[in-house]
């Protein structure tokens, strides 16, 4: 199959993409919207298995653990081993394990984040934590934001699991971590450090998990501001799929471009 990047350019053959040894894929807007599997995903995963291509689902979402993501895809009809998932929650836990001295944090987020932090020895602390860590959550409220502001003003360092402002769902676009952490940044005058894509820390871990060199793999995502730039800066060929947040018009807003633009991951399959 051939794909046109935009009108007026030569169509681009996907043969080089098919020859990649491995793939790193985002999940929200690429594999599913909420609890709805996107078209062509099963065919794409079947092709990866049939061609024995190592792959990793590298998601900026911090809500779920790899096991929960495995079970979610199982409910959607995909049988994928837990080892194929890596989340911004795990990346954040890895970062704090290396950087933290007091091993404590005040956390606004779901179980996927808090459990990842517990696993590396970070305890929950709402009095004098070393870090305030924010991820996506359905329990976003004024009290938590106020507590976070007070702790950051008292000296806690502000960490975001990812910089995504929005994410796709079954019924539209929803606020994500970048939007949720913004009030804390504005109220304190402190800028958060984001661990998820496009941070190269997360991308390097993903490439290492594949067991490949960067030039041997491709990054597939639905966001120009995280997925595509993360792939470019890490040396991977990039595939933007239009099944999530970005559109063809979005591409023109950035000084860089993806190598391939496709409607969805099903278009990757020969």
TrEMBL record:
Region forming the signal peptide: none
Binding site for substrate: 197
Cofactor note: Divalent metal ions. Mg(2+) is the most effective.
Gene Ontology cellular component list: cytoplasm
MF (Gene Ontology): metal ion binding; phosphatase activity
Enzyme class: hydrolase
Positions of transmembrane segments: none
Binding residues annotated for Mg(2+), in chain numbering: 26, 28, 222
The UniProt record lists the keyword Cell membrane: no
Cofactor(s) this protein requires: Mg(2+)
InterPro entries hit by this protein: HAD-like_sf (IPR036412), HAD-SF_hydro_IIA (IPR006357), HAD_sf (IPR023214)
UniProtKB keywords: Hydrolase, Magnesium, Metal-binding
Pfam families documented for this protein: Hydrolase_6 (PF13344), Hydrolase_like (PF13242)
EC numbers for this chain: 3.1.3.-
Coiled coil ranges: none
Active site location: 26, 28
Similarity remark: Belongs to the HAD-like hydrolase superfamily. NagD family.
Role played: Catalyzes the dephosphorylation of 2-6 carbon acid sugars in vitro.
Protein's name according to its UniProt entry: Acid sugar phosphatase
Organism: Christensenella minuta
């Amino acid at each position: 199959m051939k794909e046109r990047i935009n009108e007026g350019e030569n169509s681009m053959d996907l043969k080089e993409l098919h020859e990649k040894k491995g793939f790193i894929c985002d999940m929200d807007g690429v594999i599913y919207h909420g609890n709805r599997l996107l078209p062509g995903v099963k065919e794409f995963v079947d092709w990866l298995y049939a061609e024995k291509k190592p792959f990793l689902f590298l998601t900026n979402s911090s809500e779920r653990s790899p096991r929960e993501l495995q079970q979610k895809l199982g409910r959607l009809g995909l049988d994928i081993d837990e080892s194929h998932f890596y989340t911004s929650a795990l990346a954040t836990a890895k970062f704090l394990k290396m950087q933290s001295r007091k091993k404590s944090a005040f956390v606004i987020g779901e179980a996927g984040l808090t459990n990842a932090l517990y696993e590396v020895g970070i305890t929950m602390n709402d009095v004098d934590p070393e870090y305030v860590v924010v991820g996506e959550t359905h329990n976003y409220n004024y009290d938590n934001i106020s507590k976070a502001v007070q702790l950051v003003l008292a000296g806690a360092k502000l960490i975001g699991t990812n910089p995504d402002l929005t994410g796709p769902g079954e019924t539209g676009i929803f606020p994500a971590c970048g939007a949720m952490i913004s009030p804390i940044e504005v109220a304190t005058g402190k800028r958060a450090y984001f661990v998820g894509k496009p941070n190269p820390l997360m991308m390097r871990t993903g490439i290492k998990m594949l067991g490949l060199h960067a030039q041997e793999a491709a990054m597939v995502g639905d966001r120009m501001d995280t997925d595509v730039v993360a792939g470019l800066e890490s040396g991977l060929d990039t595939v933007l799929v239009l099944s999530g947040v970005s559109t063809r018009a979005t591409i023109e807003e950035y000084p860089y471009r993806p190598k391939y633009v496709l409607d969805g991951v099903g278009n990757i399959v020969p």
